[in-house]
Each structure stands twice: as structure tokens, then as C-alpha cells.
Amino acid sequence: MITYTHFSSWFLGNGPIPDHHTWAKNMKFRKDISYSISWNCFLIIIGSCICVLGLKGIAEPHHFVPGGMFGVAFFAYYLSVPLNPGLIYALINIPLFIIARFYISGRFILYSLLAMITASLVYQVVHVNFGIENQLYAAVAGGVVTGAGGGMVLRSLGSNGGLDIIAVILFQKFNIGLGKVYFIFNLVLYAFCFFFLNTDLVIASIIMAFVASASLESSLAMFNQRKVVFIISTCPQDIADDIIAKLSISSTFIEGSGAFSRSPKQILMTVINNVQLKRLEEIVFLKDDQALFIVENTFNVIGSSFSKRKIY
What we know:
The chain has helices spanning 7-11, 20-34, 37-59, 68-78, 85-100, 106-125, 135-154, 163-174, 178-196, 199-224, 236-247, 274-287; strands at residues 226-232, 252-257, 264-272, 292-298. By secondary structure, the chain is of the alpha+beta class. The protein folds into 2 domains: 37-223, no CATH class; 225-298, Alpha-Beta Plaits. The two termini are 42 Å apart.
């Protein structure tokens, strides 16, 4: 029988101790909020705004060419196309979204369309210059800001539009990896840039794109990364009860046996975030100071009460 000592003080203040149904309801509520339309729209709008701040406030003043379709828009703008990059980006996306309707789910398209419209509109109305004069500093700062914004958008059930749509279609139709599409596209883009733009400027743009990619990965990992913990103990059920009561997370028993003793063992496995890891360690060793506590990094956990699988 699972006990809930300390759960109410940690999660519900001084309210009543919840039963199994209340705990399950709390977990479902958290999941519903995370996957709701309002939450996804929030991520997309805020992420797109952050990305535009990096483009408008850093990339444009230094005449950088960011990667992807926004890079094409900037490149065309620098070649004297009489439209600003935000509007060019919107026009480029129109045929892409029309094509995407035949290959990608409607939900993914609508969320991606929101990201594209937000980025294009914000680019029209926002006028900002962060005043970074050093070209290298600007490239690094621009990459960090645009990557963080792009990563926030990709935490939703949509995408940033543009090159993301092409990459998803090629992945769906020909099983071409998304990373390969981004790499080849940007390689071609910057090859063209070398013929028309200053060499130092193009190299700074490549640095910005590289930093943006790293920043995007870090942004996704910050939200996604979990720890898989295996616990081998003489009192696994007591530890499991405390994990549920004190951390409000569940766990799984895996049947095993000692290689030397041949005695049966129940190995406790749970998935936890970095913030709760130390508390989990305390729970385990307060119950059994001889326990074996094994922690493994995992980039992404999909399903159950964790991240929802993105359907393209």
C-alpha cells in the first residue's frame, strides 16, 4: 500500500493527504496544461519574438546572413531586393506551406504557420539595435539569442517554418535526416554568399549559425533532459513509496537476480529531472545506506507524463 506522508506538505501545503485518484488527477492536469493549445501558442509566440530580437537587433545591423530560410531572406535583402527580410521570409514560406499540406499533419502546419506569421509581423514592427560593435561578439550573441528562441519554438508541437518544413517533408518522403538537410542547405547558402558578400562577413555569419545551432540544442536539452536512475536495494518498495509521496513521480520494478548470490532482486527504475535528483538520492540512502544508485543521462523521454511525441 502506497503511503503519502510528506506529500501534502510538499505539494498541497497543509491540505488533505491525496489518494491514488487525486495523485493521478494532478499528473493528468499537469500533462494537459503542457500539451494545451494555449501553452503551445505561448511557446511559439515568445520563442519567435526572441528569435526576431536576435535577427533585428544583432544580425541586421552587422549585415549577417543567418542560416535557413531567414538567411535566404537576408541574403536577398542585401542584394537590393526592395523588401525587408521579414516580408521576404513570409513570401518564401507561402509555397512551402502549400506543399506541406500534402505531406504534414494539419496541426503541425497551423502551429508552424503561427510561428512564421509571428516572426514576420514582429520583424515589421520592432526596431531595435543592441549596439554590439565587435563583429565576433555580435556573431556569438546573435547565435545565442536566435538559437534560444528557435529552441523554444521547437519545444511546441510545431516548428519555426521555413527550412524546418522542407526538412520534415524530405524526412517523411525519403528518410533524409533533418540535420543533413540543414547542413547541406546552409552549405549551399554560404557558398553563394562568398561570391557576393565580404569574406569576413560571411565567416562571421557562419560562426553565428554554428552558435545558434549549439544554443538551440542547449535550449531543447534544458527542457528535455532527464536522468534515468536505477536503484538496487534491500527495501525497494519502501523507497518507491517515498518517491511517490515526496517527489510525486512514479517508478518501475525490474525483476533481476544477483550474479553471485543468485538471489532474486527488484531493481527500481525511475526517470527524474536534474532538480529532483539530489532529493531522490537522499530518499534512497535514508532508507538504505548500502543501496546501489546508478544515474544515466538521457536527452529525451517521450510518452506517459513526459514529452509528447511530435506528429509531423
